[in-house]
Structures are given as structure tokens and as C-alpha cells.
Design a protein that fits this description.
Elements: H1 3-29, H2 40-48, H3 57-78, H4 82-99, H5 108-116, H6 124-144
Length: 155
């Protein structure tokens, strides 16, 4: 690995560590278990591979929202069970593909919603707020610290 590449990855790793730290603080403040906040893999994608299509804001925010809607639909129509959670994950992938919001880390949302029988408030906090804050953090991080322009486009 070239020295420049190593330096870039160290900065991306530092950004990810700071973002996860902020996520932990938000979880404590909101009294939400960190295991129910679906953003660690999103952080890794948006900061580690900012050029990737699934790392763009439309996919980040839209993918999390779409997958939550699928999760709640499955929960309401089928009820909480492991097969229902699996169905939710599969349908969320299809829905994200159809809406142009493919963000693979968001696939965890239906699983959490169905197995934990989460309240619809979950789509607002932590999901919508968290996704927007992560996009804002990534924008600031890549503009101020990284030499990688992000995003390629907002929508």
C-alpha cells in the first residue's frame, strides 16, 4: 500500500471512530441501546468508501427510511417472528433497489423492527435523524479533513 493510501485510510478510520463515538453518546443521551441504532456499518461505508453509490446521501437516508417502512409493514401484516424478519430483510432489498436507494447496511432495519417489535417512532429517532446527522458529519469530514469529495451528488 502506498504511503498516501495508508494516510487516507488512517484518516477515514479516524473519522469512523469519531462518528461511532458520537453515535455512542447519542445512544446514551437518548437512552437507546446502541445495538438498536443501525448506523455502524453505514459509517464504515460512508467514510470508508465515499465514492461508492450506496454511500451517497440518497442511498444512505433513503435506504434507511425505505427499509424501515418495509419492516413496519411486515411487523403489522405478519407479526414478530424470525421468518417475518427474514422476509422483511429480503423485501427491503427489493424496495431499495426499486427506489434507487440501495444502502446494504440498512438491511438490518426490518430485522430490528420485527424482532424487537419497535415503535413507529424508530423511523424518526434514531433512523431519520441519525441518517441526516451522519450525512452532515460525512459532508463536513470529507470537506474539512479528507481529499475525497463527498457526495458525488445529493439525490
Amino acid at each position: 500500500m502506498a504511503r498516501r493510501d495508508l494516510f487516507l485510510w488512517v484518516w477515514r478510520g479516524l473519522g469512523a471512530a469519531l462518528a461511532v463515538g458520537a453515535l455512542e453518546l447519542a445512544a446514551d443521551f437518548g437512552e437507546t441501546p446502541l445495538s438498536l441504532i443501525p448506523f455502524v456499518t453505514s459509517i464504515a461505508l460512508v467514510l470508508g468508501m465515499p465514492e461508492a453509490e450506496p454511500a451517497q446521501p440518497r442511498a444512505l437516508i433513503g435506504g434507511h427510511l425505505v427499509s424501515c417502512l418495509v419492516g413496519f409493514a411486515i411487523l403489522w401484516l405478519v407479526g414478530p417472528s424470525q421468518p417475518a424478519a427474514a422476509l422483511g430483510v429480503g423485501l427491503a432489498l427489493v424496495a431499495m433497489r426499486l427506489t434507487g436507494t440501495m444502502h446494504p447496511p440498512a438491511g438490518i432495519n426490518p430485522l430490528l423492527i420485527v424482532l424487537e417489535h419497535l415503535s413507529p417512532v424508530f423511523i424518526l429517532a434514531p433512523v431519520a435523524i441519525g441518517a441526516v446527522l451522519l450525512a452532515a458529519f460525512a459532508f463536513a469530514w470529507h470537506r474539512c479533513v479528507s481529499d475525497t469529495p463527498w457526495p458525488k451528488r445529493w439525490l
